[in-house]
What we know:
Blueprint: H1 10-16, H2 19-31, H3 36-54, H4 82-90
Amino acid sequence: MALKLGQCDADHFLRKLSASQLLEWFRFAELEPFGARVEQMQTAGLRAQVANYLRKKGSEPFTAQDFVLGYKPQVQPKQMSVEELYRRFTGQS
């Protein structure tokens, strides 16, 4: 945020802000996100649009998440029954 407002020293910038001003910025960021993460998502969306325009007919469409740098899909852990958990933690097969 400091860099977006032309401040090179984030610590100095934060010392200048009052608590109410900082809270206002947090509220504003919830309404209108800004920063590198938002810019990365915007770029990923454009990449997905171009890729979808150029993809072969019948192939799966791309999403913005396919083009976010460093993004790894979250793998949902398998739900275990109580018996499976007991066997796992007691070492029984």
